[in-house]
Design goal:
The chain is mainly β. It has one helix at 229-232; strands at 2-11, 17-25, 30-34, 39-46, 52-54, 75-76, 82-83, 87-90, 93-96, 105-106, 119-124, 127-134, 145-154, 157-166, 170-171, 175-176, 179-180, 192-195, 197-201, 214-215, 227-228, 245-250, 257-263, 270-275, 279-283, 295-300, 315-316, 322-330. The protein contains one helix and 28 strands. The strands form seven sheets. It has a nine-stranded antiparallel beta sheet with strand order 11-12-13-14-28-24-23-18-21.
Amino acid sequence: MVTIEQHVWGMTPEGEAIILYTMRNDKGAEVKLSNFGAAIVSVTMPDREGRMADVVLGYKHPEGYFFDGAASGKSVGRCANRIASGRMTIEGKEYSLEVNNGPNHLHGGIQGFDSKVWQVQEAGRNTLVLTLHSADGEENYPGNLEVVATYTVVEETLHLRLEAYADAATIVNLTNHAYWNLSGKPTIDSMTLEVRASAYTPVDATNIPDGRILPVEGTDFDLRKAALLGERNSSAHPDTAAGLDHNYVLDSEPGDKIAAILLDPESRHRLIVATDAPGLQVYTGEYLPQARQGIALEAQGFPNAVNTPHFPSVILRPGQSAMRSITWTVR
């Protein structure tokens, strides 16, 4: 059985209420969510010895989320990840988007979905449903967009379904940007990571995919067998010595598939990420305020897909829906 509690956590500078929702089951597992950025604030789960631990990075106070460039725990959009030079063409029309990450557009711009107060449609039992309206022209994206985020807690599993509908051709690439640390240590280096991907998309100096899809076999990017994260961040693996911020091409399976398994060998806490997304951005948090404090495993479409025709399309047209399913299971 899951209970849900809510209280006003704070206010935005514009005077909007920020609500914190606490979903707790009878085993003591607890998930905290906020309507600001449709964010995961904390996930407290028992390890195999029954010891409780919060395994998600989050802020103790809502003000921490206001100018959070890391998008910690938030649901990002209209387009997650990067668009080269902030430029795109949809149905023959060119658009210039806000450049907010070096020379590129990132995570929907300066006022993306992660900086919005989402509306609460339902909060009861084991489910929280949040909605957001993104107006035509917001951050220079075309079309009015309606977005629904549905969080569901079942035992040790947190599921997020994201869906979007538009009244004009636009692009949509939705994900959640939680950072995970299962160990409670200052860095992620003692954890192992397995990613079920046989290929990845190499990037240029600004982290934009160069258009190639290459096999991971024989490279430092091969995580098909669990690898110690601290070893990958070393001179023994020159391609990943500066950390990972790369898109993995997930092995294709119908419906949701296991994308990644993160393990802390000491506590035996294990995170299993499953999704229907074609890609998984693995970011080892080099640019967090405390480097490598957490790892983001972002289930999403490929970066810069709007400008790369052979990547899976992120175009959404009227009468269609964009769906994304992400499940996190902590054991």
